[in-house]
Design goal:
Layout (H helix, E strand, L loop, with lengths): L7 E4 L2 E4 L9 E3 L3 H5 L13 H9 L5 E11 L6 E7 L2 E2 L11 E10 L6 H14 L17 H10 L27 H4 L14 E7 L3 E8 L2 H19 L11 E2 L3 H36 L3 E8 L1 E6 L2 E6 L1 E3 L19 E7 L3 E7 L9 E3 L8 H7 L2 H10 L3 E2 L16 H10 L3 E14 L3
Parallel strand pairs: 3-4, 18-19
Antiparallel strand pairs: 1-2, 2-3, 4-5, 5-13, 6-10, 7-9, 7-11, 8-9, 8-19, 12-13, 14-17, 15-16, 16-19
Helix pairs in contact: 3-7, 4-7, 6-7
InterPro entries: RtcB (IPR001233), RtcB-like_sf (IPR036025)
Family: Belongs to the RtcB family.
Protein name: tRNA-splicing ligase RtcB
Length: 452
Amino acid sequence: MSWKQHLEKVSEGHYVLPRTKTMRVHADLFLSDKLLWGEEGNPEAPPLEDAVFDQVVNAATFPGVTRVAVTPDCHVGYGVPIGTIVETDGVLLPTAAGYDIGCGMVQLQTSLTVEDVADPAKRRQWIDEVTDRIAVGVGATRARKQRKLSEPTLKEVLRHGAKALGRSRSVTERDFIPVEDTGVSIPERAYDKRGQLGSLGGGNHFTEMQVDEMGRVWVMLHTGSRGFGWNIAKHFFVAGAAQLGLKSRSEDFVWLDADSALGRSYWNLHNMAANFAVANRLLIGEAVCGALEDVFGGTANIYYEISHNLIQREGGKFVARKGATRAFPAGHPALKGTTWEATGHPILIPGSMETGSAILFAEPGAEKSIYSVNHGSGRRLSRSAARRQLQQEETDRRMAEAGILLNTRTTPLDESGPCYKNLDDVLETVEQAGLARVAHRLKPVACIKGAD
């Protein structure tokens, strides 16, 4: 019998997987019938992979786990599904933060309208100006026209994130995450990557000009802690596996006692990586705002910044979001004194560079998903499958017909629209389950990607 037969439907968009096998707690899965079972005869709406089950069980099996939730964009990841929230008491889960610690989004708001950016030549000029100001691609470091930070400022960034750049909680999820041990030693391989601060990276990271339903122009960008965070994560995956006596390549099962020496070291370095990621996004955002103003005129500013691969302290426990976005509604105590106290904070959801993205606001019902929603639409095709199955000429034609400009010579097949689930289906599930409401849908008109 399929594991899906064990699920209990609570309401539209909400299933529960009761405790089974080694699970310490049940898991709440926020999935529509379509996302769970698929749509017969529609290859673009496949059923959820069976392999997700084992990873949900793993997420609910770790010592110290108190709650588990799964978002509608979920798919197979490492250790736990992408799109998982795990609440723990006294235990840190490196696998539930992942390699790109602090990866997340920034949304830029502009005074421009769709008419202002209608000329493709001007949008091409903007792409060129942005890539002069931010480094793009795997291993990329600071760009030629970018603000340079001194070594003392960099060290301040690692400890105080956005606050070190003069930014407040009104434009960031957190202005910084505290680093409690001032004497913690940064792994050399991580510190060697500090020059990547202010760079975009490759893979699914991007900077994208978008237009909303009212014709207003926005820019969304997606990046994380780059090689700095990756090397910190790798260090603790290896050290944690060794401490637990796990076999080689068993890092997905690593957990750390938060009060142990290794746990305290991970927490402090995880927080440094998170601060690096926030500052990285804000520096890129500043550069992109400048490029917009220089090319198109008008004004641009940072609307909001938020992470989706992060462990945070909430309500006295650790909440790890792996490919999931925090969703605090109006009146949540964490928003007291910020711009968003009366509305809830914005939730930034990238879909794909072909089909668009969204901005959401949480509803009170987000409590049942550990105040979290999806971080995107979710992958449908692996990168290798995309390169095997999709046709370059056809993909480029669709992008051209949609009027979406790219910085790359051809469309990256492994990031094109068919690689991702239908964002409409995912957002509909979020609204059905009462977790959040969609405030804006955003259509891409120019996208900057790292060419891997």
